[in-house]
């Protein structure tokens, strides 16, 4: 299965993103094998930096390093997929400024909801950063389920258990992109969350 054939945006209604950077994962994947879905903020400015771009893409480097920090033995995104990890973004286009409008997150959460539905055996959601958390909350609220994650800082949520449609949800910090190397204080917490997710699916 290729996710990009099942999930696509056709209207591009959002005003605060770069539509030319739109990307939905197009790798061939066996959906039944996926146990962990990692959701980060948005697509990179350059498609060559996306998770599945190949080579030494930025998202691949930082994410593989985050999993290595957590004790995983991986050299590439392909290794992570083989371990049952699927990587995607909450917003499918690159942002134009530091923040992303709530309306944009809500619009793109419709695509994310369709994407998550493709993985019937997923047990864990790694929500990497506020945008991913807001996207999952948008899906839940739209369905009348209420918020999954309270609207408080991530460090105050540590140690608490959250669930979304039968999946354990870990609110964490952004691991995709240059901030992962800059904000070293958060790397340990990211590693803890990934390690906990991996332990749940062993």
Radius of gyration: 15 Å
CATH superfamily (homologous) name: Uracil-DNA glycosylase-like domain
CATH class wording: Alpha Beta
Strand arrangement, largest sheet?
Answer: 3-2-5-7-6
For the sheet with most strands, the description reads: 5 strands, mixed
Query: What class do helices, strands and sheet pairing give?
Result: alpha/beta
Domains, number: 1
What gross morphology would you assign?
Answer: globular
CATH architecture: 3-Layer(aba) Sandwich
Fraction of helical residues: 25-40%
| Total count of strands | 7
Mean pLDDT level: 95
Strand content: 15-25%
Query: CATH fold name, please?
Result: Uracil-DNA Glycosylase, subunit E
* End-to-end C-alpha gap: 24 Å
Low-pLDDT runs of 5+ residues are: none
* Helix count, DSSP H or I runs of 4 or more residues: 7
Strand-and-helix sequence, N→C? HEEHHEEHEHEEHH
């Amino acid at each position: 299965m290729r996710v990009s054939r099942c999930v696509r945006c056709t209207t591009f209604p959002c005003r605060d993103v770069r539509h030319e950077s739109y990307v939905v994962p197009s790798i061939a994947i066996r959906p039944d094998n996926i146990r962990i879905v990692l959701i980060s903020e948005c697509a990179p400015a350059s498609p060559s930096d996306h998770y599945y771009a190949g080579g030494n893409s930025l998202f691949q480097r930082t994410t593989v390093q985050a999993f290595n920090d957590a004790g995983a033995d991986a050299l590439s995104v392909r290794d992570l997929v083989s371990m049952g990890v699927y990587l995607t973004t909450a917003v499918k286009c690159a942002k134009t400024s530091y923040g992303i409008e709530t309306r944009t997150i809500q619009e793109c959460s419709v695509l994310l909801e369709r994407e998550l539905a493709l993985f019937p055996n997923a047990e864990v959601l790694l929500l990497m950063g506020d945008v991913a958390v807001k996207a999952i909350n948008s899906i839940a609220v739209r369905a009348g389920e209420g918020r999954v994650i309270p609207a408080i800082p991530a460090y105050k949520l540590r140690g608490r258990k959250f669930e979304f449609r039968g999946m354990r949800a870990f609110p964490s910090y952004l691991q995709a992109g240059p901030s992962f190397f800059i904000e070293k204080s958060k790397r340990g917490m990211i590693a803890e969350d990934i390690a906990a997710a991996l332990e749940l699916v062993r």
